[in-house]
Amino acid sequence: MKKRLILSIVVLLLSACAQDPSIHTTRHQIDDLRDDDRDGVINQRDICSSTPNNVAVDRQGCTEWQIEEKANVISFFFAMDQDQETQAHQAPLSQLIKLLDQHPNASVILLGDTSSEASLEYNQALAKRRTYTIRMMLERQGIESTRISEQEFSQVTQLTQYLHARKRRTIAVVMTDVLSVKPTWNIFSSEQQLTKSNVSEVDNEN
Asked: Where is the signal peptide (predicted)?
């Protein structure tokens, strides 16, 4: 009798263990899986709910920022075969002084240029006299000489690319840092970077 009772108990235990476990849960969906601002981060995790379109965002849905270098270009024009300061130079000079005051750590590069008349040697000397004129104007306004450097049109430098056409002028180039949103990547991003212009030119030609 006792043996039958023990056997019955063992059979019941084994049959209980053989049953398949339940894999179903009864958890209700309470997460907000929508993406109202369409930045790729669901509302449940998005702490920045109104990011602009086509910008990169972090894991919490907030805009990612980057620092870009911008070339600010201000032109000083001269008459034919002239290199002296004129009244027409006061407006671009004021703009340049203001820009340098706003960016005290920035320097300015003066690019001397001429029209295509005359020989190369003559125009090189003329271009140097023109950059020297602008340098003196800046120094009289309190800009330290160590913040000013000079180049001329015949040199091959990173900045002579701004001399797209030969003109009777000196170009002042000031590089500044600009905070901007980081754009999202797409198949056209590389091409856009190659053609993108980070040049802001103030043209004061009459």
From this structure: 1-18
Q: What is the pTM of this model?
A: 0.62
pLDDT tens profile 108-164: 999 999 999 999 999 999 999 999 999 999 999 999 999 999 999 999 888 887 677
What distance in Å separates the CA atoms of residue 27 and residue 134, rounded to the nearest whole number? 75
Nearest to 128 by CA among 99, 150, 155, 103: 150
Sequence-ordered alpha helix ranges (H) in 26-182: 90-102, 120-140
Residue listed under structure tokens 């295509």: 116
What are the CA-CA distances from residue 88 to residues 71, 92, 93, 99, 119 (Å)?
A: 23, 8, 9, 18, 27
71 within domain boundaries = yes
Is 83 among the domain residues?
Answer: yes
**Domain with 149 in it:** 66-181
Asked if the structure places residue 28 within a domain, the reply is no
24 falls within a domain: no
Looking at the structure of the chain, the number of domains it has is 1
Report which of 169, 188, 176 is spatially closest to residue 88, judged by C-alpha positions.
Answer: 169
Say which CATH number the domain at 114 has.
3.30.1330.60
Q: Tokens 């053609």 label which residue?
A: 195
